[in-house]
Design a protein that fits this description.
Helix content is 23%, strand content 33%. The protein is an alpha/beta fold. Belongs to the UPF0173 family.
Length: 230
């Protein structure tokens, strides 16, 4: 499988028969190279969203219409876009599992908040969430925006993810130290990839803090638009 960081919390994941854009915020993202947009989104089959905030969903509607990709996420948000935008979507809820071209995606809990801005006002966008993505013999945990949760204990025991994509920017989510503590306390990751950091000054973080806290774990910090094979 191949994973490409799109900056902030966005990723392109090529797994099984799917090309999944996870929280793709491209327009207005200060660290995304706009001249590489076509490369980032080419061939996408699905757009997987963790919650409604604009730095995760800002390009979702436009990309879905442009690419014919299916939007996937919590039922409230996908249902809203189905009515308001006529989007083809898969709306489900925590504990549910869907098949995305052979990749098995289970929605799990997160601890954050979730809303959409509509006519300048925040509106309810369903619950924030994370995902366990199973494919090609491995499981990836995408934390979404969250802090440490006791739920991580059972999530790790049940799903046993080898790879963790963890928010780690602080201020709005857990930071590098807290994300590393959660990884050590609850999970048995072989590989961890931090995200949602260094996008703007409030999220300035040093990933070396995570490396120091997780001896024996491969902490990958790819550059924006760098692809790694997992």
């Amino acid at each position: 499988m191949k994973l490409t960081w799109l900056g902030h919390a966005g990723f392109r994941l090529e797994i099984e028969g799917a090309v999944i854009l996870i929280d793709p915020w491209l327009t207005g993202n200060p660290v995304f190279p706009t001249d590489r947009r076509e490369e980032a989104v080419r061939g996408a089959t699905h757009i997987l969203l963790t919650h409604g905030h604009g730095d995760h969903t800002g390009d979702a509607v436009a990309l879905a219409k442009e690419l014919g990709a299916t939007v996937v996420g919590i039922a409230d948000l996908i249902g809203y876009w189905g009515e308001a935008e006529g989007l083809d979507g898969i709306g489900f809820n925590r504990g549910g599992t869907v098949d995305l071209n052979g990749a098995r995606v289970t929605m799990v809990n997160a601890s954050h908040s979730s809303s959409l801005m509509v006519d300048g006002k925040p509106v309810y966008a369903g619950h924030e969430s994370g995902y366990m993505i199973r494919g090609e013999g491995r499981t990836i945990y995408v934390s979404g925006d969250t802090d440490i949760m006791a739920d991580m204990e059972w999530m790790a025991e049940l799903h046993r993810p080898e790879i963790g994509i963890l928010c780690a920017g602080g201020y709005y989510t857990m930071d590098m130290e807290r994300a590393a503590w959660a990884a050590k306390r609850y999970f048995d990751f072989k590989t961890v990839i931090p995200c949602h950091y260094d996008t703007f000054p409030a999220l300035k973080q040093d990933p070396e803090a995570m490396r120091r806290a997780l001896p024996g774990v491969e902490v990958l910090t790819p550059k924006v638009m760098e692809t790694v094979e997992l």
